[in-house]
Amino acid sequence: MLRARITGTGAFLPETVWTNAKLESMMDTSDEWIRKRTGIGQRHLAAAGEGSSDLGAPAARDALVNAGVAPEDVELIICCTTTPDYLFPATACLIQDRIGARNAGAFDLNAACTGFVSGLATANAYIRAGVYRTVLVVGTEAQTNRLNWAKRETAVLFGDGAGATLLQAEDGDRGVLSTFLGADGSDGDMLIIPGGGSKAPLTKANMDGSGLDIEMKGAELFKRATVLFEEASMKALESARLRLDDVDLFVPHQANARIIGAAAKRLGLPEEKVVLNLERVANTTSASIPLALHEAVVKGRVKDGDLLLLAGFGAGLTWGAAVIRW
Question: What is the longest distance spanned by two Cα atoms in the chain?
Fold first, then answer.
């Protein structure tokens, strides 16, 4: 059977790092408060003038090098981001140019923190349908340059970074076995930036930033996230005709250590099967799963033939999961 197999992973993190101690000097918070509620110890920040393409391009190159594939052989680039360089053109097109993938089509995909799983599902569908044989999926975010650093409940959560995977068509039983995507737009206001889009465009009158901050209903999100992580994971496993006992490694969206812990407990997955890098990189939105996956690969936690479960949850609301045989 023709499948989409991950043949290379890559990552990029900006040089600037802010620890929780740095935030202590900027707002009413503490390292203890942040760690207890989120599990985060530090985050990377893009430099002034750096956008998502500046982070995504090196991550994409890294994935291509690790796969041993030339940029000219990439047929499609899917960029998953909530922080595009511009309203248009697509950040995927800028990455295409930066890495020299001159033969590739390119488009952006925004499903917030579920973005990478959505991009993976899309790439898998294209490959399974025989439309493309080599697809690059990049999750990249430059979130911190638009944070309100006086708003503690959201400012402490996010970091910048990028992760990438190269998927190639291959006959056999390895690769993406199943995917599942869900959404509930009726709860779109649980996590939202209300201003800056076509509904409430930027004007001279609102250039003070009102409406441009992340608005989040944290308690409600926590409850929904733990349940929907489980739902997405179970549906993806059922589609692949597999069970939780078959899972060797769980790679969740790195939103909050408490959410991940609660989701893993509901799924009955022990700590040693869960990938957690939140403490070092914070929530990098659509980049979090590919960053965590790349780190697990580099550290040797992913073995040939392992069964991986990837799951995400984010604004929209959106949620999804993918089951992969490595």
Answer: 59
C-alpha–C-alpha distance, residues 326 and 309, integer Å? 11
Category of 175 on φ-ψ map: left (φ > 0), alpha (ψ -120 to 50) or beta: left
**One of 44, 113, 256, 277 is an active-site residue; which one?**
113
Q: Is 283 a catalytic residue?
A: yes
User: Are residues 26 and 144 in contact, defined by beta-carbon separation less than 8 angstroms?
Assistant: no
Cis peptide before 317 (omega within 30 of 0): yes
Q: Could you tell me if 158 and 233 lie in one domain?
A: no
| pLDDT string in tens for the chain (326-residue length) | 899 999 999 999 999 999 999 999 999 999 999 999 999 999 999 999 999 999 999 999 999 999 999 999 999 999 999 999 999 999 999 999 999 999 999 999 999 999 999 999 999 999 999 999 999 999 999 999 999 999 999 999 999 999 999 999 999 999 999 999 999 999 999 999 998 899 988 887 776 666 889 999 999 999 999 999 999 999 999 999 999 999 999 999 999 999 999 999 999 999 999 999 999 999 999 999 999 999 999 999 999 999 999 999 999 999 999 999 99
Catalytic residue among 253, 256, 277, 294: 253
Whether 206 is a known active-site residue: answer: no
Give the domain extent around 316: 177-325
Reported as half-sphere exposure (CB side, CA atoms, 13 A), residue 291 has a value of: 33
Which one of 112, 142, 172 terminates a domain? 172
Contact 114, 236 (CB under 8 A): no
Active-site residue, 80 included: no
Domain closes at, from 133, 156, 172:
172
Please name the residues in contact with 156: beta carbons below 8 A apart, sequence gap of 6 or more: 20, 23, 29, 34, 38, 40
- How is residue 231 written in tokens? 């739902």
**Number of domain units in the chain:** 2
Q: Provide the residue count of the chain.
A: 326
In whole angstroms, give the CA distance from residue 104 to residue 199: 32
